[in-house]
Fold this protein.
Amino acid sequence: MSKFLYGASVQGIQQFIFQTNELKDIVGASELVENICTTLFKQVVGKAWKKESSVIAAAGNVKYIFDDEKLCRQVVRLFPRTVMAAAPGITLSQAVVELEDDFMAAVDALEKQLRIQRNKPKMSLTLGRLGLWRSKHTGLPVIKVKDGECYDASTLAKRNYNKTIALCQKSFGEEVKLDIKKSVPFDVSTLTDKNDWIAVVHADGNGLGKVVQKVGRQMKTFKAFSQELDNITTAAANAAFQEVKPEGGWTGVIPIRPIVLGGDDMTVIIRGDLALRYVTAFMKQFEKYTSEGTMRTILEQTGLQQLTICAGVAFINSSYPFYYGYELAEQLCKEAKDNAKKQNETLPPSCLMFHKVQDSFVMKYAEIKKRELTTASENSLCFGPYYLEKQQAPTGYFTIDELEQLSKMLNAENAEGIKTGIRQWLTLMHEDEAKAQQRLKRLKALNVGQHELIGKLTIGRSIGDNKTAYPAYDVLAFHTIMNQQTKEEKS
C-alpha cells in the first residue's frame, strides 16, 4: 500500500501576529497560530488522525504520513481554507510526495516542493475593494461593529482567541496556576514596572539543518528528534520562567507573553529588566536538556554531544511598534549566529546580541550599527555578541555574566561620576576621538580608585584593520534598562 508524506508550512506568521500594537490582539494571534498545526489539523483529518503518523506539528510546520490517498487529497483541499477562515491574513503552502524506502529523500523532495509553493503568490482573503470602510488599526475592511469598535476579519479572529491561554500554559509549565483575569497580560502597560522598557526576544537553535540531514535517514529517528526537540524547547522555557519568578510567585500580572514556542524557536515579549536573565536561563537549559536522555542518544549519531542556541534581544519602549521590535530581534539573532559560527563552525557556542532602540527611525541593524554605533574614526561601539561561556583567548568577547557584573559595578555609590564621564566620552567618540581620549584621561585623573572599572568599559577588542570595538555603550544601555526609574514604584 502506498504511503504519502504530507507537508504544510504556515506563512506570514510574524506579520499576522504583529499586525497591530494591541497586546490583546497579539495574544490572540499567537494562540491562534499555536492552534493551527495542532487542533485545526486534527479537526480536518478527523477521526482517522493517528498520533503515530504525525511527524511534526509545531511552529507553523506540519508533516504527516497518510496511508489513504483519498483522505490525503481531502486534507489538501480543505486544510488551507480552514486555516484562512480561522486566521484571515495567514496563508498556507502544502506539498505531498510519495513515501518509499528512503525517508530522508522524501523529506528533501517535500521541502523542495514546499519552497516552490511558498514562492507562488496567494490570494488574500482580507484585502477588499476600494471604498470599503476600513479599520483604523490595520487598514483592512471592517466586517463587524461591536461596542463602538470596528473589527476587520483578522482582528475579530484574534479577539475570539485572546482569552485562550494554551501557549502561556505551555511556556510557563503545567504546574503554574494561571488566572486569565489576574495573571495573563493583555495590555502592554502591565508588562512594565519602574520604567517603560520591554524586550522582544527571539531565539533559534544552531546548525539544526546539518543535524537533520544526519539523523533523518530513518523516519522513527527523525520523528523522535523532532518531538524531543519540541519538548526540550518547552522545558527550557519552563525553566526560564522559574528563574525569573519572584520568591513566593507573581502576585499580579505575569510580565511575560510567549509569542512562538515550538521546534527550536522561541519568541517572547517580556519586561525589560527580566529579559537577559530569562533568555540566559533558557539557553543554559536548552544546552543541558539536549545533552541528556533521548536527545543525547540521537545526537551521538552525528558526533555531537549537545545542541546550542543563539538569541536576539530588542529593548524597546512600550509604545514602540512590536513588529519592528521583532524584526530587530530576528536580525540580532542572525548576527549572533554568524559570529558564533566563526568561533566554532561544527558547534557554534550559545550567545546573544542585544540593542536598545533609542530613536524612532526604523532601519536594518546594519544601518543602526553604521549610524549609531560607529565612531568618528570608524571604531565600533557594538561589542557583542555576549557568550554563555568564556571563549578561547584572544577573542576578547564578554560572557553574559561579565556584562551583568559590569552593570552592577556601576551601581556603587562612587560610580555615579564614572557613568557621567563615560557618557561624555561616548558622545565625543562620535565627534572627535582625540578629544574623547583627553576626556578619558581627565576621568581617570579624577577617579584614581576606579581605574579598573574605567578600563573595563573603555579598553576594547580588536576587530581588524586597526579598528577597535568598545564595551561602554552596551554596558551603559543595559545598566539603564536594569536601573532607570521613570515611574512611581507600585505599592
Notes: The radius of gyration is 24 Å. The first strand starts at residue 3 and ends at 11.
